[in-house]
Amino acid sequence: MKTNSTPIITLESLKEYTDLVVYMSENVTILNDINKIIRRNHHVAKLGCMMMVFCEEGEANIHINGNVFLLQKGYCAILPPGTVIQSYTLGANMTSKIVSISQNFLTETLSLKKETWNIMSYLYHHPIFPINRNTSYKIYLYKELLWTLIQEKPHAYSQRTRSFHFAGMICEMFAMLNEQIPHEERKNIQQNRATFITRDFIHLVNADNGTHRSVSYYADKLCYSPKYLCAVIKEATGKTPMQIIQENTIKQIKYKLRHSDMSIKEIADAFDFPNPSFFGKFVKAQTGMTPLQCRMSKENEE
Fold this sequence. Notes:
Layout: E1 8-9, E2 21-24, E3 28-32, H1 34-40, E4 44-47, E5 50-57, E6 59-64, E7 67-72, E8 75-79, E9 84-90, E10 95-101, H2 103-110, H3 114-125, E11 128-130, H4 137-151, H5 158-180, H6 183-208, H7 215-222, H8 226-237, H9 241-259, H10 264-270, H11 276-287, H12 291-296
Parallel strand pairs: 1-4
Antiparallel strand pairs: 2-3, 3-10, 4-9, 5-8, 5-10, 6-7, 6-9, 8-11
């Protein structure tokens, strides 16, 4: 199977950037200079977390999802998981802080509401927003308070205090974004987003030929949480991701059983089942037949 060579930036991978890290916890990492991160990933990377790039001084042209956007002082680039980013063209004295949020924390904070899907889709094409004292005062206050909290000497409740404030800033930010989506875009945006994710999911499942059978495997490949992927696929197709994965797997297995000379054990091994017994139970559950009965069956393939 052909693999995607584009590096994926996650909170785990950001641990190696010790010279850039300002703050790090289980769900949040704050860094300086996103351009160095991209350069170390061969000038292009896909996000497996959400990034908020706050421009503090200067300006830069940043390549996001194939388009060029101007990021300047007082503005923020809000980049959801799945965003493809490329190197800056830096202006003089450009400085920034990058807040990276794990997918799990993002999902737990925002929940899988229709509004959340709308905003994520809108951000794909409109990632730059003013975040300053005049345009978004509450978010500005959250940001300034968080900068203060992460520099203070830790105490027994520091982690929880910071976590609550990060969650509050994210919620206020998404509430602001939800108000800014034009009415004419709002009607179709959810369906388009679901179609985009579903298309990529189906492509990966078909290309995998039935070897991987866990939702988490595909969720990781697509840079979404398993819960989010399940909700989107169910909404778009009426089926769960697991149903689609198993349907594809049994289709591939039936073809091998009927059109190859491989033994049942060899086919079980080819599809990475732990043993022929487990393979037999899977085929029986999906088809109502044993592997041998399926091999001998004259029915047409689905």
